[in-house]
Amino acid sequence: MKIRTGFVSNSSSSSFIIYGIEISEKKAIEFMIKNGIAIDIEAIKKEYDLEDDESIFDYLCDSEETDQLFKKTGLSILTDNGGDGADGSSYIGIAIDDECDVKPEDLIQTKKIIMDTFNKKPKWVVHTYSN
Amino acid sequence: MKIRNGFVSNSSSSSFVIYGARISEYKAQALVKAILNKDVLVEIRTEEEKINGCIHIFDRDDCDFCPKCGAKKWKVFKESTVVKTDFRDFSNAFEKKTGVKIIGSLENQNWEADTKDYHYYLGEWILSDTGESDVTLEQLLKIRENVKKIDEKLNPKIIYEYSSE
């Protein structure tokens, strides 16, 4: 499994964990537009000949500029898109890794943002994968 | 992975999330001693095991030697057994008194030597392979407060551990 999206990490990983919700590419793009992360999406679509949500989402996830802007929200998007068993699902929330310093207040804030934005209660999502 | 009485362990593939501060085994022992006045000890118990002294079978209780070959009726072995009184014995009492758990996470298991190494957290587990705990995010704030009451220097974190063996 590869944790893509650039928002968290670009490296292969054996597992990831996120406190959040599963999100479709369409919803993720909407979120990025609404929060000023994806700017001038129509121009991007034209310039890079992007037609569907998947290709737009891929572009945004690989963009360093998007990465920087996304970090300001305090959220991350993780996508399970590599290795055996990968299903391409994407999740938005707060990512937990060995070096993070997530506090209960951060989780409470994340819960509020997700509830307010997506009207869904976040859950702990663990993705594990063996080579 | 199984959570057993505050212990997180024992599966070849496991992942869990804990909100807690990592502490050494020594520190965990010292806390149990200080708060519950109980010792977590390694004891050596010596047990005796008797086996037949020779290959001949005879049924005479009054005889200490084999009538056929003269060997002693019993060979007596002393077997040293290491008995570890572990944290599971105290986890409920500790939690009741402090509001936090001592959680042991299996680090290494040596099947041949029948030994296990744990590392420990002071806090609460949030997620294991068996599912999410009932603890709310707001309760985590209280747990941090309780951990700080035990030792101001401890700084609980959200910890994710994953192992695949």
Structure explained in plain terms:
The complex is a heterodimer of chains A (131) and B (165). By secondary structure, chain A is α+β, with helices and mostly antiparallel strands. Chain A has one domain (15-128). Chain A is 38% helix and 20% strand. Chain A has 5 helices and 4 strands, in the order βααααββαβ. Chain A has a 4-stranded antiparallel beta sheet. In chain A, helix 1 crosses helix 3. Chain A is globular. With 165 residues, chain B is an alpha+beta fold. Chain B folds into 2 domains: 2-40 and 86-164, no CATH class; 45-81, no CATH class. Helix content of chain B is 21%, strand content 44%. Chain B has helices at 25-36, 91-98, 137-150; strands at 2-4, 7-9, 13-23, 42-52, 74-84, 101-110, 115-128, 131-132, 157-164. Mean pLDDT of chain B is 76; it is low at 1-12.
Main features:
heterodimer; A: about 130 residues; alpha+beta; 4-stranded antiparallel sheet; 5 helices; B: about 160 residues; 2 domains; 9 strands; elongated; disordered N terminus
In short:
By secondary structure, chain A is an alpha+beta fold.
Seen as an oligomer or otherwise, the chain set is: heterodimer
Instruction: Name the shape of chain A in a single word.
Output: globular
Count of helical stretches of chain B: 3
Beta-strand proportion of chain A: 15-25%
Helix and strand layout, with pairings?
The complex is a heterodimer of chains A (131) and B (165).
Chain A: E1 15-23, H1 25-34, H2 41-48, H3 53-61, H4 64-71, E2 76-79, E3 90-96, H5 104-118, E4 123-128
Antiparallel strand pairs in A: 1-3, 1-4, 2-3
Chain B: E1 2-4, E2 7-9, E3 13-23, H1 25-36, E4 42-52, E5 74-84, H2 91-98, E6 101-110, E7 115-128, E8 131-132, H3 137-150, E9 157-164
Parallel strand pairs in B: 2-6
Antiparallel strand pairs in B: 1-2, 3-7, 3-9, 4-5, 6-7, 7-8
